[in-house]
Design a protein that fits this description.
single chain; eight-stranded mixed sheet; six-stranded mixed sheet; globular; binds copper (II) ion
């Protein structure tokens, strides 16, 4: 009892230290006069559409493994197509782009140590759904409008299959990628990563889940099958004709905007969906696949966004299980982040439970009345997370995050460590070495920073004196490190770097030597230079 209470108070402590996050208050980034032309999604009837569950990806056959040609491994063929989807009963069908003609795309279920091949085939039209900005690096007017390349976010993938942003291909072409799946059970996220247009390809719907399973997970007796529910959350604004609205800057020839926040939050492609559940434990696999919005998620028995949330347990973060379930009532999820959650409806028979952010209702769970047999478990421990000691690091890199604005306070370009994409590579860790990366946020936004290939641990997040730093380049901390959320104590691949803080991660560069990228997962930032190549050099 005392432990639970202490944990709850700890939750409160870290909740209140986090200031407003991108996307929380300006519910859409429409230009002046444009909001009048948009669909008022807040007025839509609530909970009239059932929550769709993405189909499972099915192999098309077997092919020789690139790592061992004597071995036949599953081969998947996934076309990217334009299609129409109903986002709500009362909204006209919306044009999306999706893997296998769906958004989210089909969910992959892979086993640890069992490699697969995926042929990603671009069958999209030659004209983009949204206006391109040809002033952005990599999206110049001499490049084709429609280009795609697929990145498996969180995958320990060889460089030639990682979806390097410049490895894009056009309609009529395909790329076959090899996923070794040599990593622990986790929820990965596949999505587009084409240079200079990632934000637009993602806004069009190119995303899906990729689950890796393993023996340890099998032994945990967690809720599974119909009791394991993927929740892919993203926001969009819509025009009255049902089409996705993506804003433009109003600057002639340069339509890029610095953030995209939609007026409606969709789950698995529906606005205000409902899900019928039994009064028992469920495992929820949450992914925030929004372009720019962070969410403070909670579950409540009334639709008010301010009432206290129900207790739930987070059991995993981006790169797999936490050491033990963490009881909490609020979860912050930034773009690219995932959470593995157990929610127990057993005391809620006959009730309605709502998934909410701190500003909006997202979806409804309709809990059946009566009793049900639940033989699944919430284990007391999951998988040990051995902490990487700071003295294991051979190097600390101090890396700034900056937003260069014009006199009107509008962003011109956003840079990591003051460097543009095409400048010489400066981050060259040695394979299997450990480093500390210290992100110095000079902006007034939170940025979700993601490193390809690797998993890492967060060391701390600490406020510092920005004015002193800007004058002298000296770091003067202004307070103690903030308490990390329970879900931040496990393996991560994306970390929230808050304004005027220094956030440190510790990383072992395991997997493959080669060229990868690290970037901000606010996709508008990523497309305007907040992305850098890095090279893992052979040991
Ligand atoms: Cu950013």
């Amino acid at each position: 009892m005392r432990t639970t209470r202490r944990r709850f108070l700890r939750n409160l402590a870290w909740m209140t230290t986090v200031a407003a996050l991108p996307g929380e208050h300006s519910k859409h980034a429409a230009g002046a006069g444009e909001s009048a032309k948009l669909l008022d999604t807040s007025a839509l009837a609530r909970f009239v559409d059932p929550l769709p569950i993405p189909a499972l990806a099915k192999p098309a056959g077997l092919r020789p493994s690139p790592a061992d040609p004597a071995l036949q491994i599953p081969y998947y063929w996934v076309p990217m197509r334009q299609f129409q989807m109903g986002v709500h009963r009362d909204v006209l069908p919306t044009t999306f782009w999706g893997y296998d003609g769906s958004c989210p795309g089909p969910t992959f279920e892979a086993r640890r140590g069992k490699p697969i091949l995926v042929e990603w085939s671009n069958e999209l039209p030659r004209q983009h759904l949204f206006p391109l900005d040809h002033t952005l690096h990599g999206a110049e007017a001499d490049k084709p409008d429609v280009r795609t390349v697929i990145h498996l976010h969180g995958g320990r993938t060889p460089p030639e299959s990682d979806g390097y942003p410049e490895d894009w291909f056009v309609p009529g072409k395909s790329a076959t990628y090899f996923y070794p799946n040599r990593q622990e059970a986790a929820a990965l996220f596949y999505h587009d990563h084409a240079m200079g247009i990632t934000r637009l390809n993602a806004a069009a719907g190119l995303m899906g889940l990729y689950l890796i399973r393993d023996g340890l997970e099998d032994g945990l007796n967690l809720p599974k099958g119909a009791y394991e529910i993927p929740l892919v959350i993203f926001d969009r604004s819509f025009r009255p004709d049902g089409q996705i609205y993506y804003p433009v800057s109003g600057k002639p020839g340069a339509p890029w905007v610095s953030e995209y926040y939609g007026s409606a939050i969709l789950v698995n492609g529906k606005i205000f969906p409902y899900l019928e559940v039994e009064p028992r434990k469920y495992r929820l696999r949450l992914l925030n696949s929004s372009n720019g919005s962070f969410y403070r998620l909670s579950f409540g028995s009334d639709p008010s966004v301010v009432s206290a949330g129900l207790a739930f347990h987070q059991i995993g973060s981006e790169q797999g299980f936490l050491a033990a379930p963490a009881e909490m009532n609020l979860l912050i999820l930034g773009p690219g982040e995932r959470a593995d959650v157990i929610l127990d409806f057993s005391g809620q028979a006959g009730k309605e439970i709502f998934l909410r952010t701190n500003v909006a209702i997202v979806m409804q769970f309709r809990v059946a009345s009566g009793k049900t047999v639940d033989r699944s478990a919430l284990p007391s421990t999951l998988r040990p997370v051995p902490h990487i000691q700071e003295n294991a690091a051979v190097m600390t890199r101090e890396l700034t995050i900056a937003d260069y604005q014009n006199r009107l306070g509008r962003s011109n370009v956003m840079l990591l460590n003051g460097a543009h994409w095409n400048m010489p590579v400066t981050e060259k860790p040695v394979l299997n070495s450990t480093e500390i990366w210290s992100f110095i946020n000079l902006t007034d936004d939170s940025h979700p920073i993601h490193l390809h290939l690797v998993r890492f641990q967060i060391l701390d997040r600490r406020p510092f004196d920005l004015a002193v730093y800007q004058l002298t380049k000296k770091i003067v901390f202004t307070g103690p490190a903030a308490e990390l959320a329970p879900g931040e104590l496990g393996w991560k691949d994306t970390v929230r770097v808050d304004p005027m803080t220094i956030t440190r991660i510790i990383v072992k560069f395991e997997g493959f030597a080669g060229r990868y990228v690290w970037h901000c997962h606010l996709l508008e930032h990523e497309d305007n230079e907040m992305m850098r190549p890095y090279i893992i050099t052979p040991a």
